[in-house]
Amino acid sequence: MLMGKETYFFTSESVTEGHPDKVADA
Protein backbone atom coordinates (compact mmCIF):
# COMPACT_ATOMS: atom_id res chain seq x y z
CA MET A 1 0.00 0.00 0.00
CA LEU A 2 1.65 3.20 -1.18
CA MET A 3 0.08 6.21 0.51
CA GLY A 4 2.63 8.49 2.13
CA LYS A 5 5.32 8.82 4.75
CA GLU A 6 2.78 9.85 7.35
CA THR A 7 0.63 6.83 6.58
CA TYR A 8 3.68 4.59 6.49
CA PHE A 9 4.79 5.87 9.89
CA PHE A 10 1.33 5.35 11.34
CA THR A 11 1.14 1.89 9.79
CA SER A 12 4.59 1.07 11.14
CA GLU A 13 3.43 2.03 14.62
CA SER A 14 0.32 -0.12 14.31
CA VAL A 15 2.32 -2.95 12.78
CA THR A 16 4.61 -2.91 15.78
CA GLU A 17 1.57 -3.91 17.81
CA GLY A 18 1.34 -7.16 15.89
CA HIS A 19 0.84 -6.76 12.12
CA PRO A 20 4.06 -7.55 10.24
CA ASP A 21 1.95 -8.17 7.13
CA LYS A 22 1.36 -4.44 6.68
CA VAL A 23 5.04 -3.58 7.01
CA ALA A 24 5.94 -6.18 4.41
CA ASP A 25 3.14 -4.94 2.17
CA ALA A 26 4.27 -1.36 2.57
SSE diagram, text form:
Layout: H1 5-18, H2 20-25
- Identify the overall geometry: flat
Number of domains: 1
User: Distance between termini?
Assistant: 5 Å
- Rg value: 8 Å
User: How confident is the prediction overall: mean pLDDT?
Assistant: 60
Secondary-structure element series: HH
Please report which band the strand proportion falls in: under 5%, 5-15%, 15-25%, 25-35%, 35-45% or over 45%. Answer: under 5%
Number of strand segments: 0
Q: Which ranges are low-confidence, i.e. pLDDT below 50, for 5 or more consecutive residues?
A: none
Number of helices: 2
Decide which structural class fits the backbone: mainly alpha
Biggest sheet record: none
Report helical residue fraction.
over 70%
Description of the structure:
With 26 residues, the chain is mainly α. The chain has one domain (1-26). The chain has two helices and no strands. The chain has helices spanning 5-18, 20-25. It is flat, with a radius of gyration of 8 Å. 0% of the residues are buried. The mean pLDDT is 60.
